[in-house]
């Protein structure tokens, strides 16, 4: 008999053998340091890019330059970092909830729902404060995300491509309602502000809501294991004693609040939530406890780079960052759909 | 002990289970056998509180599975269903480690690491422990899922057709492991199984189901009887004693 049967001592730990719990593979700090350095370089480039010439020397003897930095440049760079990081995390969470790698809030109805919410509240209560508009956006985003998740529950799990297709159709449908209403009421330009994300309008006092979005998405780290388990499916989640409904609801809330806040503040930036988590997944897998910080960092860096391109490509004018990221993102999305990882089945 | 009391279940208008009552003994391995559509998997899912019954109660180790908090039950029973599509890219060791979640809620210590290694070794997964699930064969993936369930270290272990995709070597080894767990560690494995000869060799107790009801429930030797099995499957089955073991000849 070749079986080594489990002995009783294995169940009652006698404290003789102690294996490290999780971290067996030695953590290589080089990639971490390199990533942080690259992120810093991007931040500095972002701060010192712009029409008004600011250089290090000017900062020390020119109060005007310092003021510009504090009111415009720094807020913009911070807004880019916060948006990029939190949108990437939202994409990852949504992919766990939907159990599908090809969905993200802006392609599956959440972003469009938020935009529809703002349009409706703008019509119904034009004088409403920004907070009320924000709440309307969040509520509409929640509704639309709930409908999407209910729709895909009926799809067969062995056909992963149906989910993003349903998402695109559903997102397009919700977006079309918003566009139709906006068109009828001559609000198209108004709507454009939310549908096409860009950071040129970011100033001190007009982006701070993004800190809240970022805090909320970083809070996901504390329930990272729960989100990973949700990604294993409902039966597995129940088996492991997870409050399935609570975690679903928590995930949806994070996604919708962050998406709505970023739509209201800077507009929709598609594909961030799709591209970044998929790159991280290929690199290090889907154990959120390990990958979340990377997803956030990578998201921030990629949006920083896109924003830089958007500002420099026809300097001194700007292209919306959503266009730049959309071009790279959609190309990546197509590549992702057509190149299936080599499975050993 | 698992006490099933007058369990009814229906999907739409079609009745799946019609008032099933049965008791499955503690510290014994029970095999649930029966023809397709008998309600075996449904009963297993009901025992594991994955679906709520239309009527009746189920107690596992004294806990009413509908009344007890899910996270408490997760430390008492573990379940692996038949079809498991996992889209996430997880390493084998990470997946198996999630078996500790009900005990640790995300804070594994050295003892958990030891349990994870123990489960990996049981399913001969150590060589693949750092591979991603999508880099494994179907059988290896099935073993990884079983290892996760074993790592949960519960008194009751419910497995729906665990031998799916497993080769002869690993099928036999899994059955030996489960039998050992029942006899030496006092655990209660309950398996839905189609190969009745694996049931004959390793199970202590057999629950035979047919058409949404209990056909027979008792010690393996009592169930392995020509007429009973033939009637259960509507197929002529002869039981031969080979090396002191009942072997069902059905083809």
Description:
The complex is a heterodimer of chains A (345) and B (251). By secondary structure, chain A is mostly helical. Chain A has a single domain (80-337), classed as ABC transporter involved in vitamin B12 uptake, BtuC, CATH 1.10.3470.10. In chain A, 68% of the residues lie in helices and 0% in strands. Chain A contains 15 helices and no strands. Chain A has helices at residues 8-11, 30-47, 56-61, 63-98, 110-124, 130-153, 162-184, 188-195, 209-219, 224-230, 234-239, 244-265, 272-284, 288-312, 321-338. In chain A, helix 4 packs across helix 14, helix 6 (130-153) runs antiparallel to helix 7 (162-184) and helix 9 (209-219) runs antiparallel to helix 12. The model of chain A is unreliable at 1-24 (pLDDT under 50). In chain B, a hairpin with a 2-residue loop joins strand 4 and strand 5 (63-64). Chain B is globular, with a radius of gyration of 18 Å. Chain B is an alpha/beta fold and 251 residues long. Chain B contains 10 helices and 12 strands. Helix content of chain B is 34%, strand content 28%. In chain B, the strands form 3 sheets. Chain B has a 6-stranded mixed sheet with strand order 6-7-8-3-9-10, with helices on both faces. Chains A and B meet through helix 1, helix 10 and helix 11 of A and helix 2, strand 6, helix 3, helix 5 and helix 7 of B.
